[in-house]
Amino acid sequence: MLTELEARRISATELDPSRTAQLVHVQDTDLRNRAQALVAAAAPADRRQVIAEYQQALRLPSDAKRGREIFAKNCTACHRIADLGVSVAPDIGDSRTMTPAQILVAILDPNRKIDNNYFSYTAVTKEGKVYTGILGTETTSSVTLRQPENKTVRLLREEIEQLHSNGVSLMPVGLEKNINSQQMADLISFIKNWRYLDGSVPLAR
User: Mean pLDDT: which of 13-27, 38-52, 80-94, 153-167 is highest?
Assistant: First the structure.
């Protein structure tokens, strides 16, 4: 697997999170170092820079209630938490086992780890129309793409000229253009603590 990744016959973004975790924690030291180098190199330079700049968000006081509003404005076209949004992208409602640092990376570099079920696909019809989404259902006669805002497009296979994976997440990069470090701190707090906003359980950091 590592040889195929190093030869770029397989992209690191094609590995699901569990397989990536297996590779970067393998017991053999040489293999582990190779795997960690490959995963780190898979992150574009601009993403590494943005993640470094937003580390300050992890040290700021945060407000989960303010974060709820940020989530509602920026994330609900694809994600659902409690009564907000739609379930098009992976479920982020149960993030209690994730650290704030891990959530930060997932937000700013959505292509670093992609569940195989959530790769972006593009379909081009014989009429030249282009549709992008994640694969919903496939049959011998049709393909359904799920799009942001819970929209769906069903195409007959006989209509399709091309159908291919884009090798990236449906979630676009660049959320940092819309939210600053304080807003990021609040957003992360909401993702981790939304179930505790009634005050019955202390918020986690």
Answer: 153-167
Alpha-carbon span 144 to 154, nearest angstrom: 4
Helices (H), the chain: 2-6, 17-24, 29-41, 45-53, 64-74, 100-108, 181-193
Residue type, 158: E
- The CB density around residue 99, as the number of other CB atoms within 10 Å, is 13
In eight-state DSSP terms, residue 191 is H
- Mean pLDDT is lowest, of 1-15, 59-73, 101-115, for 1-15
Answer yes or no: do 53 and 134 share one domain: no
- 121 with 105, same domain: the answer is no
CB atoms within 10 A of CB 146: 21
Q: Are residues 88 and 182 in the same domain?
A: yes
pTM for the model stands at 0.71
Angle between helical axes of 45-53 and 100-108 (0-180°, round to 10) = 140
